[in-house]
Structures are given as structure tokens and as C-alpha cells.
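Consider the following input, taken from an annotated entry for ATP-dependent RNA helicase (Biomphalaria pfeifferi).
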Amino acid sequence: MLLLNTMAEFSNISLNLSTDVNVNDVRPRSRSNKNRANKKFNHKEKFVPAHTKVERREESSPKEDNRKRKLSDNAEISHGKKPKSDMVISSLFRKNPEIPEVLSSKVETVSENVFTGETFKELPLHPFLISNLEEKQGFKQMTEVQKKAIPVLLKKKDALIKSQTGSGKTLAYAVPIVQMLQSRKLKIKRDDGPYALIIVPTRELVLQSYDTFVKLLRTFIWIVPGCLMGGEKRKAEKSRLRKGVNILVATPGRLMDHIKFTSVLHLARIQWLVIDEADRLLELGYERDIALILNALKSQCPDPPQTVLLSATLTDGVERLSSITLDNPEHICVGELADTLQQPNGSTDSSQENFTLPSQLKQYFIVTPCKLRLVTLAALMLWKCKYSGCSSKMIIFMSTQDSVHFHSKLLNQVLGPAHNIKRTLTQMALGQDESSEDGVELKDMSESTIYQLHGDMQQKDRTNTFNKFAKATSGVLLCTDVAARGLDLPHVDWIVQYTSPGATVDYIHRVGRTARAGTKGQSVLFLMPSEVTYIQELNKHKISLDQMDVSSVLEPLLLHVQDLPQPQDVTSKRQIPKTVEEAATFLQDRFEECVLNDKDMNILASKGFQSYIRAYATYSKEVKNIFKVSDLHLGHVAKSFALRVAPAMVHNATATLALKHKKKTSNRPDNFRQVTLSEYSSGLQAANCNVKTKPSIKRKFKTKLKWK
Ligand SMILES: Nc1ncnc2c1ncn2[C@@H]1O[C@H](COP(=O)(O)OP(=O)(O)OP(=O)(O)O)[C@@H](O)[C@H]1O
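Applying the prediction step yields:
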């Protein structure tokens, strides 16, 4: 009887909605296109799936909040049971803030040519090296940075190299090292030990740079590359060092560990020192390790090594480091405005700096109310990986490890294989049933595996994910900023920044994972209505983005829910959502049920929620006025983590945090460094190392390093 009543209730609502919510034609007349969607979200009737037997209401009073919290507590201890019949669930489309008019100026971007039209033959390189590059690896022409940097480095000059992401900086330093090592009159031997030292911030980057050397050295097999990184067994690394390594690629922490404790590692023959992603290394507080490495080199090498610092974004810190570590360096900056941006002393002002991004990169932003974030993300994934005709390869950046962990599980469970069926393009267009033989078969999300990558994973899982995603032709990688720098994952079509990066340099590196080496790519930045002035912040650095309409992005949800296996009995078929809003609500319910009915998922969601709020309080001073934790509506954030209410246990802590942030926004919470550093941890004590402020970096290097 109850079921029949509920069905009747549902069918009424459903009938109402069928005339009410049509994405294309119900739009307030007085507003621009961009704002129509929002207006519609704010004012439509709500879709209430009957089976959940819940009351959907507006955002509640404090009294109601308490009640909700109690319900949440109950939910936490009653996992596996059905939702309580009187649970209050906030509607997805009500009480959202207005989406403000976004003023994104069309800024004149700084362009940089990637390729030069000139071949490697034009350089004084060994013919084997040229044939390796051109024939074996298919590099038919040099990139700008390679053309400028290789001759300089072959002359044994120190250099500070800056060029856009994906422009081939790795070969720009690797080719000269291989050329000079193979040309030594006295052929080098394996047990000579290292001649070149390459320092990079992450383990994945170690593997990638090492791989570049392995490929280049195929014709010079007597030169042996090797790598050291956190997460690997020290014993195995020691035995490799004992056998002999001539080119050593390492993360700073693990390298320092071996310098201290591995007696077979000696640095007396080091002639090249390369610090890649130099600005990142300094940001992460590795300057202490780098200072110690430089001191070790100083004490062991008779002559200072030729030193090269590289990045797509060189910050003030790197300029200071370069002024101390580089001897009369060449500044190699690729890009039209490179010369004009330089200060007379060779430094750059990062607050004013214009960054170059690949011209083939199309950048978008999407303004979505907090409550709709999760369904909007799901819709974007479905659109690009299932309904766009060809399956994309997508990287989604999130702010914390817990957030990545939670979302990858949730999205896998709700959008994963069990919930997908195949349909054909023609079937969808013609509304035919699935028996039709015609049409193009679409890939479903089950063929687009969802991967995760963050600093809290076992090294073997990290490497496994990295390799699998690198080889995959489609799929979605959810990750933290551990994947933002330097990684060269082929054929990535879309970069999604689900949480804003804050610093512009981080934006540059994240989007730089696509549109590499002349290929096409697209990126989308998620913003909440309170955050839209971030666009102007990006515009200041000559970064231009177009707006995506949130209602268009949500449209694939309707196709998706209609694709799901339908209930057999005729009455329940009425439950099939008929509008985009119904579909979004239906999917949000699936997400919420998944969290409510599974204890582990509930814990993951709560942790994700907490860490998201904490990370939100750590935005840098440049953008702290845009990303204010006090602007967050905790109930809405909870909804975006598929939690029906904000977890009780963090309510007070978060409120205090918000208050603190309001009072003294520049004070970062203690855990900030640990959270950030752990993403890049090389397996040592990085999380505990002291992050010094910029002036002390200078002091440290000045006092300790006296080669010059
Ligand atoms: N001359 C070339 N021709 C074609 N492809 C090239 C050439 N040089 C490098 N590449 C390819 O370009 C891609 C990007 O190179 P690389 O990773 O060195 O870029 P990067 O400038 O270091 O980027 P990031 O700043 O993101 O670290 C790699 O896949 C590399 O194999």
C-alpha cells in the first residue's frame, strides 16, 4: 500500500515536471544566455524520486541543522540499512547562489612557437645520436627551446631555461649530456660512478627522465643511467650504485639519504647538475636538501659542475637560487615577450609575469553552484568519455589525497561497468530500442577506466597507475598536484581542475599536461559563484578562458540515466527521469545512497569533506580574498561529497577554522606543509623538513655555497 501511494505521489510530480522543466525553452527573458541556467536552477520545482521516501526541503534553520546532524550520526552507525524515512535531503536545484556575470576579458595571449623547422642534423651531434632522435624516436625537427639551449649547453655554459609546458625541455638538457659523455676521449666506465646528476621533484618524473636517457643511450650502451627515488628499496638502490651508474636521476630527499649513508656513492666526477622544475622544488621546501647536495658536490668535486635550472615558470625563488648556484648563466626564455619581461638583473617579477601556454590549448571555465559540483563532474566525464562519439583521456585535479580517493571509488561504483549498457548513436538519435543493428557503437564508462594517483599510495601502485594511464588510449585519472608537474602522459585530451589551483603557476602546470609538443588539448576549470574573480586573476597573467554553460554540461546525464537498465514492471517505468534536472537529481541520489549504505564510503566521504575544507583554508595570500573558507556553505560542500549533511565531527573544527581564516587569512594551518609535502614525499622525512621563507633560502645558499 505504501509503495502504491509513493508511486502515485511520484507520478504526479513526474507529470508536473514534464511540462515544467525543459532545458531549452524555460528561460527567463530578461537575462543573458549564461545566466539562464542558474535562474532556472533557482526557481524550478524539485524532482522527488518516490523510492527514497524522503522529504526534500530548503536549507534549514540551525534547529533543523541539529536534527540533520543527529540523522547523520545515526546514518554513520546504521550503515547497510535503508535511509530513515524522515531524513531531510536538501534539493539539488534550490537555494543555490546566483551565478554572477563573469567578466572574462579576451586578453592577448603570449605565444611561443613549439617547432623550429630545423633538424637535429644542424647541431654538432654524433651521427648515432641524430639517427636515434630522428629515426628511432621520430623527432623530425627541433623545438624552439632545444634549438636555443643545446648549443649553449654544449659550450659548457650554465643556464636558466624557461619555456612552455610540453616544449621538450627534457631533451634540451639530456641531449648535450649524452653528446658530451659519449665524446670523452677516455671512454667512461660504469664503475666511474656518476658524471651527471638530475634532480626532479616527483618519483614519476624520475622514471620519466630516466626513460628519456635510456632511449638516448641505446647506441651508447657503455653509459649507464640509473635512478633513486623514495618508495623504492634502499638496498636495491645501493646495489645498483655499487655496480655503477653514470647518469643519476633522483628526487632530492632520497639522493640526500644516499649521500649521507651510502658510502659507494661518490660525486667526485660530477660534471653536470640539472635541477628540473626548480621552482617547485623550492616551493616544496627541498631547498635544505638542495643546499646539502650542493655542499656535498662542493666538497667532493674539484671543479663546480655545469649547472642548469629549468621550468615553464621560473619564480623569484629560482632567480635567487640561480644567482647563487649558476656561474654567469645564459637566460634562455622562449616566447614572444621573453626579452621584454626580463628585468635588467635578469630576474622576473612573478606577480606581473605573463606565462606562455600552448596556442593549441583551448581553455574553459564552468561556474557551478557547490551542490551541483559532483553531478556536473559526472556529467562532464560522461559527455567526454561516453557520449561525444570518441572516448577521451582526461585528468581531473583535486586538492587532496582523501578527495581523490573518495571520488575515484564513488565514480567507479556509480558510473562504473555495472551501471552501463551500450547504445548506438543512431538509436539515441532516433529513439529506437536496443535491438537495432545500425549505428556507431559508443564506448561506455566501463571502457574508460577511472584511475587514481596521489602521494599516499604505495610506490608500486603509483608506478602501475602511471604506466597504465600512460599507455591507455582513453580513461580518467583523478589526481592531486603530484601529477601536475612535468609528467608527459601521451594523448591527454582534457584537463579538469575540479578544485582551483590558486597560484597561477600551478594552473599553468596542470593544464600543461595536455596540448604537449604541438598536439591539441582542452582544459576546464570548475569555479563556484563566490570564486569567479579568479578569472580576472588569470587574465592578469594573459591567460584567456571561455565560459562553458553548466546546463549544457549537465545534458548528458539524461542520456545516461535513460541508458541504465530499466525496471521490468510497467508502473516503475514512470520513474525514468525525463528532464536534465530529474536526471541530475536521480544521479545525485545514487551517489548519496552509495555513501549512506556503505560504511567505508561514508568514512571516505567524511575524510574527503574534511580535507577539502582544510585545503581550502590554505590558499596563498595572492588569492586568499577569492577563496575564502568563510564563504563556503558546509551543507552544500557536504552535498558535493554525496553526504546528506556535513559530518558532525568536523562541524566545530571547521567553523573554528573558518573563523580563524577570517581573522587572519595569511596564517596557514600547521598541517598545510605536511599535506603539501606528502604529495611529493620522496619517502624520507620531507614532511618534517623545515620550509624556510624566501629570504632565508638566500641566506642559506649564500653562507654555505662558496664555489664562486
Ligand atoms: N623535437 C621534438 N619533436 C617532437 N616531439 C618532441 C621533441 N622533443 C620532445 N618531444 C616530445 O614532447 C613531449 C614533451 O617533452 P618534455 O616532457 O620534455 O616537455 P617539457 O618542456 O619538459 O614539459 P613540462 O614543462 O611540462 O615538464 C615528450 O613527449 C617528448 O617526447
